[in-house]
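Exercise 7.
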Amino acid sequence: MMDKYLLLLFSLLTFSTAFAQDDEEVIDDGNLVSNGNFENVKTKTLKTHGMLDDLCMNWFSATQFKGDIYASGIKGDKVNIPNNSFGKQDALSGHCYAGFRAYSKDKKYKRSYLQIELDENLEKDQQYCFRFNVSLADLSKYGTNGIGVYVSDRKIDQPNTGTIAKKPQILHKSNKVMTTMDGWETICGTFIATGVEQYIIIGCFERDDKVRADKVKRPKGFTGAQVYHAYYYVDDVEVKAVEAKSQCFCGRADDLEPDLIYSKSVMIDPEMGPRDIVSNTGLYYAFIKSQLNAVGKRDLDRVAKLLKENTSIKLEVVGHCDNDEFDEGKVNPRYRDLGKKRADRVVEYLIEQGISEMRLIPKTKENTAPANTRPTPLSKAQNRRVVFVVR
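Solution. The predicted structure, written as C-alpha cells, is:
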C-alpha cells in the first residue's frame, strides 16, 4: 500500500515539475505573430513545395497557389535546409523558414502569399512595428520590389492564382528591388492601427506591368538552371506595439538616409511691409534637430534687421514639431519638448543680434497645430518649424 502512495506522490511531483517547466518556457515578447519563425511544423510529412497550409501551424496561403515551408533534415532536396531546389540558405533562426514567389515569367509558377491571423486585433491609434526578413533564392532569375505586408481586417481567400491587388501598408522605405542572396535582409515599418486589423499577408503586391523585375546573376558555385521567377525565403516575422518609430529598428544601413528639411522661399512684394515679411517667414528643421541651419540663420538675420528698423514690433516665436518627433519624446527625454527648444534657440539667436528680450515671447504648440496633415515625408517636414506672430 505504501508503495502505491509513494508512486502516486512521485507521479504528481513529476507532473507538477513538467507543468512548471512548460510555464517557464512560455515567454511573452510582445510579438502578435504566433509561430513567426515557422518552427512549429510537422516535418515528418514535409516532402515538397506547397505544403505550408497543411503543415505549418497558424500560417496559410491567400490564393490558390500555395506557399512553401522548409526545414532541416528533410529527405530529398526540394524543401530541405540549407540546400533545396531553389538554392541554398540557412535559417535566420531555428531550423525552419517559409518561402513565397513574388514574381514569375514561367507560366507553371504563380505568385504566392503567406497569411496569418494575429493573436489579437490591433488596438485603435496604437503604433505597431512590422518586421520580417527575406532572402532571394540563388536560382532566381529576377529580384523585385513591391515586397511588403498588407494588414487586413479580414481573411483573404482569393479563389484564383492572380496577383493580390492591394496597397501594402508596410514596404521597404525605398521600395527597392530585393536582391540579397548570401544572407537575410530586413523589411520593416510602422503602422498606426484603426482597431479592426486582424490579419497580415506577406508577398509582392505590385502588378506585373508596374513591378520592377531586375535580372540577377547566378552566384558562383551553383550549377542548376535559373528559374524565371523571383522567389524569396522568409523568416522571423514580428508585429509589436511601439511608442516611437525609433523602436522599429530595420538595420543601420536603412537608417542612414539624408535629413529632409523643408524649404520655403518668401516672395517679398514691394508693397509688403515689415510686419508682413516677418509673419511670412518660417524656419524649418531636420528630424529631431533644434539647431539652426544656414538657411535659417540667413532668414533670421533678415528678421533681426527688420526688428531693429521697426522698434514697435513685438514677436511671438512659436515652435512646432511633427507627430513622429513628439512620439520620440515619449521614449527619449532628449527629444522631449522639441517645439519649445526650437523657439528658445531662435529667441537666443535674435537676442545675440541685438534684439531686446522684452520684444520676444517664446511659445510652443509642439504637434498640436500641423501645417500639413498628410503622412508623406515632405508633409511632415513642413511641420518641423518655427513661425512668427507679429504683435
